[in-house]
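Project outcomes to date are best conveyed with an example. Our students and postdoctoral researchers have been running inverse folding experiments weekly, and each run begins with a structure described purely in C-alpha cells. The record below, which covers 397 residues, was selected by the lab manager from last quarter's runs and is presented without edits.
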C-alpha cells in the first residue's frame, strides 16, 4: 500500500467523501473544498482518495444491491492496473479477484467480474442509455468510462521543438501524437506549469474540440460569431485558420469572458468584439449580419462523462428536456443574424439523440435550412470527449 493507512481506513474515508457529496456542483470542486478543510491529508493521501472516489463513480449504478465496500473494490479493480488494497480485502469482498488480475485489460476484467457477480451489467453504468444516438457503438462507449480521457493540447505552428524539449526535461511522456501539433497526455500531468504554456506556445484543448474546427472553413475578412464562446477555444481555432477574420465572441457569463480575453492575450490573438449576450433573449439589432455562426450549445455534457463520472450517478433525465428547449430557442434567435447561403455550425458534447439529430430535424422542418455535414466525433475510440457537429446552410431565399 502506498500511503501507510490500512486499506479498510481508506474505504471508510472514501465512503464519507461520497456520502457528503450532493451532486449539485462538479465533484472536483467539492473535493477541493474537502481537502481544504482536511489539511492533515498529505499529497499522497489526496491522490489516493481522489482516484478511489472517481473510480467509484465510474461503475455508475451497477450492482446497487452490493455493499459500498464491494462496489468500491470492484470499481477500483476495473479502473486500476495496481491496487492499494490488501489480499485480505480482496478475499473478503471479491473472492474471484486476485492482485495478479489487475494487469489484465478491461475486456478480461469485465469477464472476471461477471463470473463472480452475475447481476453485473455494463448497461447499468450509463444513465438513460436508450436515449443515446444509434450512431454510438454502445459497448465501446460504455467501456470508455472506466478510464479518464487524455489531456490534449494544440501547439502553435513552429513551436513543436521547444515544447517537446521542455516535456523531455520535465520527464512528461507523450501518449499520442495523432497529427502535427496535437498531443495527448495522461490526465494527471501538470502542463500548465510549463514555461511553454505560460508563453502561449500551446493551449489545452480536447482532441475532438480541435478536430471539430475542420468543419468551420472561414474565408478571409468574413464576419463570424462564436456565440457560446466559453473560454474561447473554438474562437482561437477560427483565428488560427483565418487571421483576417472579423470575429465576434460572446457568452452569458462575464467571468468566462474574462478568461477568454486572457487566453487571447496569451496567444497574441484579437477578436473584433467580445461581449456578454443572453442568447435566450432577442438578439441586439446593433450586431452585424454574419458569414458564419458557431453555436457550441449548452447541453447535458453526456459525451464528457468519462472525464466527469459523477454524472453517471447523479444525472436527472428531466435535464434533457430542459436543454433541448434552450437549444431550440438559441438556434431560432441567432439564425436571424446569419446571412443567406452561409453556414451555422451546431455543436454539443452530448450523445443524446434528442439534443442532436432530433433538434436538427425539428429546426430544418421549421426553417428549411440544409444539412451540409452531420457527424459524431467519437472520443470513446480515441481517449477523448464525444462531440456532435452539424453544419447547416441558410437558404438563399
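After processing, the design step wrote out the following sequence:
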Amino acid at each position: 500500500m502506498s500511503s501507510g493507512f490500512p486499506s479498510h481506513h481508506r474505504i471508510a474515508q472514501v465512503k464519507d467523501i461520497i456520502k457528503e457529496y450532493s451532486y449539485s456542483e462538479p465533484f472536483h470542486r467539492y473535493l477541493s473544498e474537502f481537502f481544504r478543510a482536511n489539511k492533515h491529508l498529505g499529497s499522497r493521501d489526496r491522490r489516493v482518495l481522489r482516484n478511489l472516489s472517481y473510480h467509484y463513480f465510474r461503475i455508475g449504478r451497477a450492482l446497487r444491491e452490493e455493499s459500498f465496500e464491494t462496489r468500491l473494490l470492484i470499481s477500483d479493480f476495473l479502473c486500476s492496473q495496481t491496487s492499494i488494497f490488501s489480499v485480505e480485502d480482496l478475499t473478503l469482498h471479491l473472492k474471484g479477484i486476485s492482485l495478479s488480475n489487475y494487469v489484465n485489460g478491461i475486456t478480461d476484467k469485465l469477464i472476471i467480474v461477471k463470473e463472480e457477480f452475475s447481476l453485473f451489467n455494463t448497461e447499468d453504468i450509463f444513465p438513460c442509455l436508450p436515449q443515446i444516438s444509434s450512431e454510438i457503438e454502445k459497448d465501446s462507449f460504455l467501456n470508455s468510462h472506466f478510464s479518464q480521457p487524455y489531456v490534449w493540447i494544440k501547439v502553435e505552428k513552429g513551436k513543436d521543438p521547444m515544447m517537446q524539449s521542455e516535456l523531455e526535461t520535465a520527464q512528461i511522456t507523450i501518449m499520442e501524437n495523432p497529427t502535427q501539433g496535437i498531443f495527448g497526455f495522461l490526465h494527471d500531468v501538470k502542463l500548465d506549469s510549463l514555461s511553454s504554456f505560460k508563453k502561449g506556445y500551446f493551449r489545452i484543448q480536447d482532441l475532438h474540440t480541435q478536430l471539430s474546427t475542420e468543419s468551420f472553413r472561414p474565408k478571409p475578412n468574413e464576419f463570424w460569431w462564436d456565440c457560446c464562446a466559453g473560454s474561447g477555444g473554438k474562437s482561437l481555432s477560427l483565428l488560427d485558420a483565418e487571421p483576417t477574420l472579423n470575429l465576434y465572441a460572446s457568452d452569458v457569463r462575464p467571468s468566462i469572458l474574462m478568461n477568454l480575453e486572457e487566453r487571447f492575450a496569451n496567444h497574441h490573438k484579437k477578436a473584433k468584439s467580445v461581449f456578454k449576450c443572453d442568447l435566450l433573449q432577442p438578439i441586439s439589432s446593433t450586431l452585424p449580419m454574419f458569414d458564419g455562426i458557431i453555436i457550441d450549445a449548452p447541453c447535458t455534457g453526456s459525451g464528457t462523462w468519462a472525464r466527469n463520472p459523477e454524472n453517471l450517478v447523479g444525472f436527472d433525465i428531466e435535464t434533457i428536456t430542459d436543454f433541448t428547449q434552450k437549444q431550440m430557442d438559441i438556434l431560432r434567435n441567432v439564425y436571424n443574424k446569419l446571412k443567406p447561403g452561409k453556414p451555422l455550425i451546431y455543436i454539443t458534447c452530448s450523445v443524446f439523440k434528442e439534443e442532436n439529430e432530433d433538434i436538427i430535424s425539428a429546426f430544418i422542418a421549421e426553417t428549411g435550412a440544409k444539412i451540409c455535414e452531420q457527424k459524431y466525433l467519437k472520443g470513446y475510440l480515441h481517449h477523448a470527449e464525444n462531440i456532435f457537429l452539424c453544419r447547416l446552410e441558410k437558404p438563399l431565399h
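The chain has three domains: 7-125, 151-204, 207-393. The domain at 151-204 is CATH 3.30.70.1170 (Alpha-Beta Plaits). The training component of this project remains on track.
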